[in-house]
């Protein structure tokens, strides 16, 4: 099955739930723009209803907030038919999230303080290898 990797904006905060067997599942609404901008200067938006399963869903759901932009690896992407409340048929794009690389947040969005990086010791200078030219004069005869 082909995988799709790309930058997607989160449409609403991820919703984490737990199945009866204890498996965590996160529902994520993803969006991306495509095509040429219209007269109003805006491009079309495609929405994807995505799910992420297991420990990864439990761990990453708090970071998948509305408006944030992340790199998602999607699998099992397909069009799903559904019935609307008025009885008409609708279509939606659905996918399973395999992996997420966390990206940027919108202005004003709360974030946890980043841990201070551990101090790294300065590398020891490498010993100079003998070049074998120590016995030559510093004058070059020309």
TrEMBL record:
Q: Which residues form the signal peptide?
A: none
InterPro entries on file? NA-bd_OB-fold (IPR012340), Primosome_PriB/ssb (IPR000424), ssDNA-bd (IPR011344)
Q: Name one Pfam family in it.
A: SSB
Keyword DNA-binding set for record: yes
Q: What terms describe the molecular function in GO for this protein?
A: single-stranded DNA binding
Instruction: State the source organism's domain of life.
Output: Bacteria
Output the GO biological process annotations, alphabetical, semicolon-separated.
DNA replication
What the entry lists under CDD domains is as follows: SSB_OBF
Task: Work out whether the entry's keyword set contains Nucleus.
Answer: no
Please list where the region (Disordered) is annotated.
104-142
Keywords for this entry? Answer: DNA-binding
Segments of skewed composition (Pro residues):
114-126
> What is this protein's name?
Single-stranded DNA-binding protein
């Amino acid at each position: 099955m082909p995988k799709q990797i790309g930058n997607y904006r989160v449409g609403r905060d991820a919703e984490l739930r737990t199945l009866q067997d204890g498996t965590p599942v996160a529902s994520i609404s993803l969006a991306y723009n495509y095509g040429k901008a219209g007269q109003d200067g805006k491009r079309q938006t495609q929405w994807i209803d995505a799910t992420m399963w297991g420990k990864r869903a439990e761990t990453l759901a708090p970071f998948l907030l509305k408006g944030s932009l992340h790199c998602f690896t999607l699998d099992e992407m397909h069009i799903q038919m559904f019935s609307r409340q008025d009885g008409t048929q609708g279509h939606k794009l659905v996918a399973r999230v395999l992996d997420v690389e966390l990206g940027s947040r919108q202005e004003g969005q709360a974030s946890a303080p980043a841990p201070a990086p551990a101090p790294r010791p300065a590398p020891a200078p490498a010993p100079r290898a003998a070049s074998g030219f120590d016995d030559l004069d510093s004058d070059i005869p020309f």
